[in-house]
Every structure is written in C-alpha cells, then in structure tokens.
C-alpha cells in the first residue's frame, strides 16, 4: 500500500481490508465504486458521452465512453425523471389548455408547493419557511429590500472580499438605494496576508470590534472561488448577539452540504437549483425566512402571489399578506422549471443529505489524495516541474464542500484547453484557478482517477511544448501554420538563445523564416550568403559568461523575483514567464515579448514590470546574490534590416552607367507609391567626400549664428516604441498625438521627394527606417542631424550629397 501522510482514514481502512497494493491504480478506484452504497444514483442521471462533447479530441478519447464530468458546481447533470415530468405537462397543456391550472396530475396554480417537502429536507427548514420562486439574484434583492434597514448608526453590510459578482453588485446597489455610500457602508472582509480563505476567528473578531455599526451580515455558505465552507451556525449566532441581521447565499451549499437553517436560527437565505440541484440552467431558485419573522409585516416588494392563497382570486386589491416565506412571492410559478426541480428530488428521494455528505467526503478526499500524490510540490520530482499545482481549498474536510480549487502557476486557458480535449468537464476562474467538483449524486471514484490521469497527460503535453524551441509560421503568412508550428505559437513567440526576439511584424515588411526583414531586391542575396559571411557579420557574445549560462542565470533570477514579489502586475507577469526558456534580457524585446505572450498591449505596464525587475535585481545583488553584470545597463539595440552584406567601401566610386536614374512617379503623397526600389546600377553616385560636406555645414552654421537667425527646433517628446508604426496610416492623427513622429515624417518625405536618395538600401526601407527611428526625435540642429546620418549610415543609407539635401529641407 502506498504510504502518504494525508491518506484519508476510509482509504487506509479499505486498502487494509482489500489488501490492495497500489491505491493510485484504476483497479482500486473500481473497487471503491463497487463498495459504494450510493453508486446506483448515477443511473438516475444522463452522463454525456465523450463523443457528444463539442471540444473533445476524437484522437485522444473514446467517443462511446462516459465523459469525465466534474462540473456540478457550475451546472448539474440532467435527471432522467425530469424529461418525463416535462413531457407530461406539455401533453397536459396540449389537451387541457387553461384548465391545466386547476386540474390534472400537477395543478399549475400551486405546483411550487409540491416541492416544499423535498426542499425542507435539503435545507433543514419547516413548512412555512421556504418558497420556490424566481432566480437567485432576484430573490436576493427581494430579501435585502426587506431585511436591510440601515440607520445613521448601524448601516454597514459585512461580506467576504471575493464574493460572487452578482452578490457584490446586489449589495452595492441596495446600499445606494437606501441612500448610503458603498465606500463606507460595504465592508469586504479579506483573508490574512498570504492566505486564500477567511478564518472564522477573524470574522468574529471584526464583528466584536465593529458589530455596533453593522446592520446586515451576508456571506456565502460555500465560497464559489475557494470552495470554503463557512461555519454558518457559529457566525450567525455571534452576529445576532451583536444586533446584526444575518443572511446567507447558499448557491454552492444547496444539495452540496447538510444544512439546518431553522436550527441555526438563520434570519434569511436564498439559493439556486441549477448547480448541485440539477434543475437546468437558470432553474427555479428558493428562499428561506425563519419563522421568527413569520407574522411581521416589514416593508417589502409585493405581487399577486404575496396575497394569501385562500382569498387571492377575490380581486379586492386589499392585500392579505401570506404568512412566512410565501409572503415574499410575487408571481405564479413556472411549471416547466418546477418540473426540473421535481426531477432532481425524485432522483435522490431514496437517500438523504447525511448519506450524500458521507459519500462526498470520500470522493473529494480520494481526489485530493491523488492530486497530492501526483502533483504535490513537496515531492522532489514534482517540485522540479515547470507547471506547479497548489490547492487553495481548505484541507479540513469539514471546512469545504465537494469542490476542490486548483491553483496553477501558468496560463489556465492552456490547461483548460488540454483537459477539455481529453473529455473533462471542469471550469476555470481567472486569474489562475480551475475548479473540480466530484458530485456525490452521480460521480464515481473512477471519475476522479480518470481526471487525474487526464491532468497528468495535459501537463506532460504542455511541458513538452514549453521545452521545445518554438517557431511561428512564416511572418508573411501567419494564417497558414506549418512545420513545427503549434496552435500555442500565439501565446509563446519564437525565441532563440543566441538572437534577439523577433519583434511583432507589420504587414508591410516581409520576413524570412529567421525573422529577418528583406525586400524583393535583396531576397536572393539573403539566400546566397555563405557561412563565412554569416559568421563575420554576427554579433559577438560577451566573453565573460557564455550566452547559454547567462540566459539560464537570467531565468533563475526571474523565477526567484517572481516568488519574492507581492501580488500585482509584476508578480503575475513574471510568474507566467518563469516557465519560459528564453525570456528576453533586453528592455525592448522584453516588452515586445510581454505583448505577444501575455496579450498585454499597455506599454506603461510593460515599462513598470521591467523597472520592477531591474530594481529587484539590484536588491538581490545588495543581498549578496550573484547577479552577472551583463544583466544591468544593457545597450539598446535597434532592430533593423542590415541590407546588403558585401558593401563597397565609402571612398570607392561606383561604376559608370549609361542608364539615366529612375525618377519616382510624381504624387502629392509619395510614400504609398514607394513599393520597389530601382536597380542598383541606377542609384545616384556619391558626389563629395564626408569632410567637404562637414566643412560647408560648419561655415553655414557660423554665418547663420552671426545673422542671429532663429532656427526651427524639432519638438521633444517622450521616448516611445514605434515598432508597429506604418507610414501608410493616418499621419494627421499620429502627428497630433506624437510630435516626434511628425518630425520623422518630415524628414522621410524630403527623402521621398528627391530621386535616387538612398545609398545601399532601396528607397522604401530607407523611408520606413526613418519613420521608426526615435533617435531623430531629439535632433535640434543641422550639425547633430548630420552626425546621426553619418553614424547611422547602415540604417538610413544616405549618400553625402543626399544628406545635405535632406538636412537643408528639414530645417526650412
């Protein structure tokens, strides 16, 4: 028998009796099902087949096998009896019409009362304390309208910080309707730092301190996100001793855990029936109002069905309010929704909540054990995995329902997708939780075993994908994946340990499979480059630390920093990066990687995460951690096409050509027409040397200074990323938003208006590079612009003569 400190007692006892050696085997799960006294309940429900699930992969599953349905916390399965009830009522409607209200098997006028007996057993209520009506949030509003009666001294509502949005919005709106401010009247109690669930002592402590200002306490019976079961009786009793009214949202507690609402003296409660109640999507909800409030006439929202049923049809418009929960009803019950609840009650009529809870504890305990055995981070093998799983649901079985909330350190959309492919029905809750609920009415121990196996396969598939060096489809054909490309390329951009990350590609620049930009005139040259030329032009790596070791050190530091950081954008991003093999070490590539990997297109957040990372590196270095100096103050690398590799020397005169240089077609907006450059032989030759032009520029600048002429300066702006900028977009809008772009556009247009203005580049790429070069934003003089053109000769490709033309035009 497998040894484990968290082995549930029932598993230990069963294994010792059966002498099963491997508790983790499928055979052991089948034996547990064979010994289950409530296993027959599964036959009362329709279990979807693998082949009927919309996203199951037929290559990975058997279409005729039952699906792994562990999503009862979201929507329960269809009871087989429900179809019969609904069919009979439809037939009755067809045969009787309006007479069906008072005649037949189930008179519609009081059909909801047929549910009371079964509902009383589930929630622990007396006959007059419950009513089946409406939807959960509608009922919550009705009850809050009646029971939330704030005063100037006692006006607050206490709830958990991560309440279900519907509850949060309902409470917030009720506070406003009563004339108070949610900022002061809505108290959202948070767990302790580093914990996921609320402690009962913390709730009682807050009530003890500020109970005099609290009008209403409203918690969930079972917390939807973590699966925590609150101590309803203890919290209710203590809050009422402080003068508070106590209500409970039992959406995840109804038919999940035993309830004794009358015995616990709860003031009011409400629930839905489509989760563990298996009463269809949007099924009929219910309310509980304690008999202590049976005869009070507190103000509430009223309707026809609030009237006493004995005199309702006299139509006197003189309200005779029904006693108990019936006085909160508004309209007649929907018969089809009543049939859905009746089908569920029929499916479980042979048992009770005590027996169901006993099985639930075993099912969830068995699932918890398997998850711990296969994925616990305490195991050395599991701790080395890139994908880690932690359980945020309380370990104490008495503090949870049947749901387990699994927290992942990666994008849960990927995990969820892999599970669905393997026929698993679970649900995801952002940012990083997948909820799994083995329901005691229809799930089996074998379902739990099959889910864990599917989870193992999913993690193995994703881990293999993470470890591969991914390549995206060709940049110029992103819609046709090929080769080693996978559907996950959109989440993980192509990286290379010895190269910078390929930035996002604008549609108007073509790229080869290496991610390098090329034009039609240079395509063949890229293909014909020899190994010798590649080695000569490649950028040298630092001599101090080999690149692969430096990258591994960087990865380790990113993971360490992600663990140290508090909750926030930086922690979420760096935690996600922790399982990537090639996180860029440079700022620009890092932010591009953030956009493509996390789909986070806010550059300000990217800048913030980068600066946080650098600050943490400084702290680690101060604390004595070894941080290579290469990870600090790295030079910014401009990403541009290098152009022709075998360039002629600067002083070499070009060969004479008898052909006249080709002139670009005249146009008021020349940029869109600059698609292809002319042949190399038609390009403008250099006319003068660099030194002569520089002397002329200096003399001209000196003359202008003597004349005290005012020179126009380029407007300065904040440094921004223009990697995605296209010269064919809305120029006027970009000019208004970013002055630096207007300056670059002016220079680029002057280039376009002069024939043969490019040197070793074709004209199109010269203009594009000019648009994308933020270095031009800060040029304020002709001399500085000349130095930039000279220093960045590879980038702009301007001859000496053309430089002078552009400079003169730019400063006019």
UniProtKB/TrEMBL annotation:
Give the Gene Ontology MF terms in alphabetical order: kynureninase activity; pyridoxal phosphate binding
Q: Where does it sit, as one GO cellular component term?
A: cytoplasm
Which spans are transmembrane here? none
Its annotated pathway reads: Amino-acid degradation; L-kynurenine degradation; L-alanine and anthranilate from L-kynurenine: step 1/1; Cofactor biosynthesis; NAD(+) biosynthesis; quinolinate from L-kynurenine: step 2/3
Comp. bias intervals (Basic and acidic residues): 688-721
Q: Where is this region: Disordered?
A: 476-514, 643-734
Species: Bursaphelenchus xylophilus
> What is the recorded name of this protein?
Kynureninase
Q: What is its EC number?
A: 3.7.1.3
The Swiss-Prot or TrEMBL record lists the needed cofactor(s) as: pyridoxal 5'-phosphate
InterPro entries found in the cross-reference section = Kynureninase, PyrdxlP-dep_Trfase, PyrdxlP-dep_Trfase_major, PyrdxlP-dep_Trfase_small
